[in-house]
Specification:
Layout: E1 2-7, H1 19-22, H2 27-41, E2 44-49, H3 53-66, E3 69-73, H4 82-90, E4 95-99, E5 121-124, H5 129-145
Parallel strand pairs: 1-2, 1-3, 3-4, 4-5
Helix pairs in contact: 2-5, 3-4
The chain binds 1,3,4-trihydroxy-5-OXO-cyclohexanecarboxylic acid.
Length: 147
């Protein structure tokens, strides 16, 4: 089983960016936690990070051709990018939206995601563990579909 994790805008700055909100773990730390979880689950996970909307759309299209599922944290694009929503909707493989922070407990504009309705689920508020929980849930959902 192959899952692609896509980190979106500004997530390359984790650890230095608003640590009071996002914690002090860097993106490398998050990716290491993801790989540990992948090993536990016995699946292959590739991670990518792009801050540009078009690059994220391209990464979703590439995942659609090569992977069984997508875990995506679009960053602020979650709240308004119809291009990312359309890419996820058209990928033909299931996606889970992830947020480090609990977006429902922050500014009101973060409470809405235009991407979440085309995902199979959302995990938010658990820091790096949000990604691990999403991987676990997506792997379980995918293996239920495998005959
Ligand atoms: C975020 C939440 C978004 O609202 C914000 O714009 C981000 C990070 C999170 O992981 O908590 O960039 O996606």
């Amino acid at each position: 089983m192959r899952i692609v994790v896509i980190h979106g805008a500004n997530l390359n700055r984790l650890g230095r960016r608003e640590p009071e909100v996002y914690g002090t773990a860097t993106l490398a730390d998050v990716d290491a936690a993801i790989q540990r979880e992948a090993q536990t689950l016995g699946i292959t996970v590739n991670t990518v990070q792009h801050s540009g909307e078009g690059a994220i759309v391209d990464a979703i299209a590439a995942a659609a051709e090569s992977a069984d599922g997508i875990v995506i944290n679009p960053g602020a694009y979650s709240h308004y990018s119809y291009a990312i929503r359309d890419a996820v909707a058209g990928a033909g493989i299931p996606a889970v939206e992830v947020h480090l922070s609990n977006t429902a407990a922050r500014e009101s504009f973060r409470a809405q995601s235009v991407v979440a309705p085309v995902c199979v689920g959302v995990v938010a508020g658990f820091g790096a563990n949000s990604y691990c929980l999403a991987l676990r849930a997506l792997a379980a959902a995918l293996s239920r579909k495998t005959p």
